[in-house]
Design brief:
By secondary structure, this protein is of the alpha+beta class. The chain is built from three helices and eight strands.
């Protein structure tokens, strides 16, 4: 019984940490053609490292925009991430360089095909289902916070 109580306490704690992380990140509206995106912005070293870890769900219009310090060939992985995601790597103007699909708890690297300034994570298949690929523009990134 004590073990079960401990497990429940840990699970509730993880859910609250994920919820607190979501609430503390700045939220900006981006667009991809006619599609609206509510993007949580990860622009600090800590928020970029944590990303969407420990989250169990994400609304379809919601995503996370990673703002990197430098333009380079950034890579993403899915350590401690429960949600299957697609990531679009973006250049400095917000144009998609490439999109990669990522599975939960997979520590394989998914990298930008060429130097990128941003990465936008959405639910798995979000970009494909909207016919958004290399060259498509994500607008509104000019208003997001600069990296710290």
């Amino acid at each position: 019984m004590q073990f079960l109580r401990f497990v429940c306490t840990v699970l509730i704690g993880l859910l609250l940490v994920g919820k607190a992380a979501a609430q503390s990140l700045p939220l900006f509206e981006l667009t991809a053609g006619i599609h609206r995106i509510e993007a949580e912005v990860a622009h600090t070293q800590q928020t970029r490292m944590t990303g969407l870890m420990n989250r169990r769900v994400m609304p379809q219009q919601r995503g996370m925009l990673f703002v990197f310090d430098e333009v380079q060939q950034h890579c993403m992985w899915m350590k401690n991430t429960f949600i299957p995601l697609s990531v679009a790597f973006l250049d400095e103007s917000g144009r998609i360089i490439n999109v990669a699909d990522m599975q939960p708890h997979n520590e394989s690297n998914h990298c930008a095909a060429k130097p990128a300034r941003y990465a936008l994570e959405m639910n798995l298949g979000w970009f494909r289902s909207r016919n958004l690929g290399a060259g498509a523009a994500i607008t509104g990134i000019e208003a997001v916070p600069q990296p710290r």
